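Slide 14.
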Amino acid sequence: MAAARLFAGLMSGTSLDGVDAVLLELGSPEASSASPGSLRVLGHVQLPMPPALRAEFAALNQPSTDELHRAQLAGIELSRLYARALDELLREAGVGAAQLTAVGAHGQTVRHRPELGYTVQLGAPAWLAEQCGITVVADFRSRDLAAGGQGAPLVPAFHRAVFGRDGVDLAVLNLGGIANLSLLYADGRVLGFDSGPGNALLDLWAQRHLGRDFDPGGAWGAGGVVLPELLQRLLDDDYFRAAPPKSTGRDYFDAGWLDLRLRGFESVEARDVQATLARMVAASVAAELQRHMPGAGELLVCGGGAGNLDLLRHLRELLPTCELLDTRAGGLEPQQVEAAAFAWLAARTLDGLPGNLPAVTGARGPRVLGAVYPA
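Slide 15: predicted structure.
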C-alpha cells in the first residue's frame, strides 16, 4: 500500500470573511482519484480577514484607480495571511513543514469573466512557497478557461469523491458569497454550477443597516417579511434562467446590481429586504435543483451560509421532499469542505491527474489544473 501524504488547502472565498486552512491526509497517488474513505482531515484553522484587506478586495471587484499596483499589494498581504494560517495549522497538528507534500492555495477571486476568457485570483504563490518552504499549487482555474470552460466551479469532483453514493441522487450546496450546486447523480454523472448569490448580498445589506459583517444566524432577516414584488424583480435576471455550464462572482452580483433593483422600494423596512434576499437565494437554489435533479433526496450544505438558520428555513419550505443536512453527515465540517477540496486538487495536480469535470465547466476535455511553485 502506498504511503499516506499530507497536503494543506488554503481558501478565502467570495464572502471575504477570512481564511480556512485544512490539513489533509491522502494516499498516494490513486487516492487522489477519489475514494470516499481515502482522505482524513488532521486539522483546521480559521483566521478572520483583516477589515482593511477585506475592503480592498471588495473594491477590487470593480474598476478603480491604480488597480494593478493595489492588486499586487493585496495579493502579497493575502499570502501573509495564508502563511500565518498555515503556520498555526501545522503547529496545532504537530506537523513540520517538511512533512507536507504541497499546499493548494486558491487565492482571492476579484474578477470572474469566463465569457471573455479570464478570471483573476489574487495571491502571491511564489512568495508563499519562499516564505513557508513548502511546494505551492495555485492558479487552478485558468487552464480550464483556456480549454473553453468556465474555470469554475472546480469542487464538484471533490464532492463526488467524498459525498457521492452509488444509486443515490444527492446534491451539495456551498453557500459562500456565491452559491454553487454539485449534483451527484445515482449513475455517477456529475453536474455543477453557480446558482447565483449566496451570502454576498445578505452580508452587504447587513453591513449597511446593522454595521456588522453579517447577520448572525440570519436572526435579523428572520424577523422580516418577504416582499413578493421585490422578490420577483430580484429573480428576473437572465443569469437565473441560463443553462449550465455557468459561473458568476461578486463583480456581477454586487451593490450596483442590488441598488438598481431596489429602486421604488426605498420606503420598505430594511429587514424586509433582508428577508427577501434570503428568499431569493433559496428560491434560485430550489429552482435549479427542481430543474436538474427533481428526485434529489438529500441536500448537503456547506460554507458560511450553513449557519444561516433563516436561509435554511427558506430552503426547507421550498424543498419539502428533500432532506436538508449539513456536510457533517458526509464526514466533513461545513467550513472545511472548500479548503479540503483545494488540498485534494493540489494532489491531483502533482499526480498529473485532471482536476476539472468538462460536464461541469464546459471545457473541451479533462485538464491537469494549477501552476506549481516548488519549495
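Speaker note: DSSP finds 14 helices and 13 strands in the chain.
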